[in-house]
## 1
Amino acid sequence: EAKQRGDQRVHAFDHAMEQALEGRLRLETALRQAIDGDQLRLYLQPQVDHRGRLLGAEGLLRWQHPERGLVLPGEFIPLAEETGLILGLGQWVIEEACRYLVGWSRCPQLSRLRLSININVQQLQHPHFVDGVAAALASHGAAAGRLTLELTESLLIDEIDTAAVQLAALRRHGLQLALDDFGTGYSALAYLQRLPLDILKIDRAFVQRLGDQPETLAITRTILQLAEALSLKVVAEGIETPEQHLALEGLGCRIFQGYLFGRPQPREAFEALAKGKAAGYALEASEGRNSS
Ligand code: C2E
Ligand code: MG
Ligand code: MG
Ligand code: MG
């Protein structure tokens, strides 16, 4: 009888495994179809300066699934990374970014906006990545100088020097480079020392602890000083409250991103914000402070 119970357990386990594998396979197939089937969206989250002026946006990937609705990257990027589908997704993001930039360049109210997109390490490590980005920009007629690539601290230390060569080439093409989620990885300082960068993005984990942890304030101040010493711009992300905004401003931060200034939104909504409400938006964001 004990043996029988054991067998049942093994069967239950096999069944769960099978279902998990099947689920992954279904997701993988669906994700492949998403790329060809016009189900991907590049949402835009506003980035503003210290006067509340709109500087541009970060593009964030969404999957508009026919049945499941809007799916967030956390639910499909990990599998895309495992299966190599990330390269196809990444290519789509680059092309879409080019289309946005070209559209903006034709409209006086939008032509100064910058766009920042997220790049996966696998993309960066691909031997033709730099040529691919340059080719996409050229074929669409988009200005490299308006595009920023964000990368996270997920490179291994011994991959840094190879990455640095690729990044230097991208910069020669006129792109700007940002280190995303700064402060959350293991090797933050090694990255700063060895990669050619333009921008540091302070992770929202720091921003959200600013109010209740004095040491977080000290660390954030140090990050800003370090950035200044290295001539890097700083973007603080994940700002949700006016208190967080004020604290960061007090520390000398000049570029902000977070729900307080706008959620990630479809292109049309972002463009309407940039066009129609640009003036009101600036007033609203600098409310209660001197408009220096
Ligand atoms: P990330 O690049 O650090 O993007 C910022 C994330 O924080 C976004 O989540 C954004 O929606 C969220 N966020 C922004 N402001 C706030 C705020 O005030 N409060 C809170 N709680 N969250 C805020 P999202 O869109 O779910 O993206 C998650 C991550 O997925 C991104 O983190 C990025 O690493 C990755 N990702 C997104 N799009 C792409 C893409 O096109 N390619 C690649 N390779 N990765 C992407
Ligand atoms: Mg990012
Ligand atoms: Mg980030
Ligand atoms: Mg992140």
## 2
Amino acid sequence: MVKAEAVHKSFGPVEVLKGIDLEVAPQEVFCLVGPSGSGKSTFLRCINHLEQINAGRLSVDGRLVGYREKGDKLYELKESEVAAQRKDIGMVFQRFNLFPHMTALGNVMEAPVQVKGESKAAARERAEKLLDRVGLSDRKNNYPAQLSGGQQQRVAIARALAMEPKLMLFDEPTSALDPELVGEVLDVMRDLAESGMTMIVVTHEMGFAREVGDALVFMDDGVVVEAGHPRDVLNNPQHERTKGFLSKVL
Ligand code: ADP
Ligand code: MG
């Protein structure tokens, strides 16, 4: 579903991704862990067209992100083609980023109506089902300010799912939550994983990675230090940097 080959990304003179190689299989829950500043968010942002890579190859579902390949030449995609690629990718951020002036239902209906041109009736029907799925059918008419952080994050997940993505990216979805609200969001993510969604999850929740993850990559300073099954990496880290990091978060 995702293939990165020697992906490089710099901001000015600062190289943030220094040759990332990884593959995410369909239906896999792929956990990305590592210290702050190691490039995890930047990598997710490259997948979702929020940043452009400087070198290497990055593809989603067999198609290069942002480019078309003809022979050995690359052509940048048109804006409409980029928009079409982005529709297949849902992203959930640490900060929930809901539209504050819209209800939960309005937030979930917005993109299908505005981006896909779906009818309001159809968008409402799907939004209601999705809010039910994340356990918020009784909250659909509440505004974000009337919801807890955990509830807002569940609305954000429902909103991303409303576009029927092939791939979901989670960037520390529980890091901004009070501890007692983390579990309800992880439960929704676990359900989603069980439904077969392909997910890349940046997280410090090692319990989730161990129980739900199919693969885990430890990143530090813009490189993949270590990769494997979450149980193997977490129980038996091979590199000093991985050991040092895990001793702080486990
Ligand atoms: P992580 O998510 O692992 O904490 P990030 O991908 O957010 O790491 O950041 C990696 C490095 O890239 C950091 O040093 C950060 O300051 C830098 N960085 C991220 N975005 C930008 C940007 N838009 N401009 C300049 N530097 C950036
Ligand atoms: Mg980050």
